[in-house]
Each structure stands twice: as C-alpha cells, then as structure tokens.
Amino acid sequence: MKKPITKELAEHIEGGLSFPLRRVRLIIDGHEITLVTCIHKFKLGVNVYVDGFIRCKDMIPPSEIGQKFWWPTYCKPLYPRSMSKKLAKLYDEARVIELTSRKLCSFSPTFPSPRAFICHVNKTCTSVALAPRPTEKAMEMSPE
Question: Which residues lie closer than 8 Å to 56 by C-beta, 6 or more apart?
C-alpha cells in the first residue's frame, strides 16, 4: 500500500512543527487539517484541528473523524475476562464472546509528536496535500 505522506512532505511537517505554537495546514481526504504545536505532558505535542474545530462528539466511536485523524488514547475491554464466567451463566456462548470482545475507546486530538501523526495518517488516510497559503486580500479586514 502506498503511503500518502511522502518523505519531503514529512520533513516539511516536522520542520514546521519544531517550535511551540507553530502551525501547518494540510488537506487530508477532503478535510482541512490544522496542526498546532502545544505543550503536552511537559513536552511538545501536536493538536489536530479538523475543519478548524476540535469537537467533543468526535472523541468517542463511531466517529469517522476521530478514528481517521486523532490519536486512540483509551481502549479497554467493556467486560473483563474475569466476568466471562458470570456472563456464561446468563447468556449463550456466542453472546458471551460478543460481549467480551467489545472495547471502550476514545480518541485524543493531541499527538505526542509530529512523527506519531505522520505514522497514523499513513495508516488511515488516502490523500494528503499542503493547503494553499491564505492570500493577503483574504487576511485583510474589510472596513464594513
């Protein structure tokens, strides 16, 4: 499978995020992604803004944005293995397997490093491009 982030683009992303409060804008699978460096656990981290926002509804599955662009931080079985004997008394074997295989997951918009973001995007996304820089006219405030 071809990786969507080339070596040159990866170097550009890592170089652009090497200092605090720097940002890099990308277009990934039709979404505008803004990467901003931040302080995370006393180190530099990378916050990922999808279409300009971090929405709480994307932090829990079945959110496509959370699974595609964010770091999976918490993934734990819904029922521990020790509870399978108790569940076996209540349900048939197929239902017990279904219940014990379920996991409770959440996603974080903060990656520990730019390299972690690049590796995650290479696994989950298909197209990556640099976003065009805003022109001076777009950045000027209109008098009205």
Answer: none
DSSP state of 54: -
What is the Cα 79 distance to its own chain's centre? 26
Our measurement of the distance from residue 94's CA atom to the centroid of its chain's CA atoms, rounded to an integer in Å, reads: 33
Helix (H) or strand (E) holding 9: helix 7-16
Give the start-end residues of each E strand in 56-102. Answer: 71-77
Give the phi and the psi of residue 140 in degrees, each rounded to 5. Answer: -70, 145
Residues 6+ apart with CB under 8 A from 25: 32, 33, 34, 35, 130, 131, 133
For residues 33-42, give the mean pLDDT.
89
Q: What is the pTM of this model?
A: 0.76
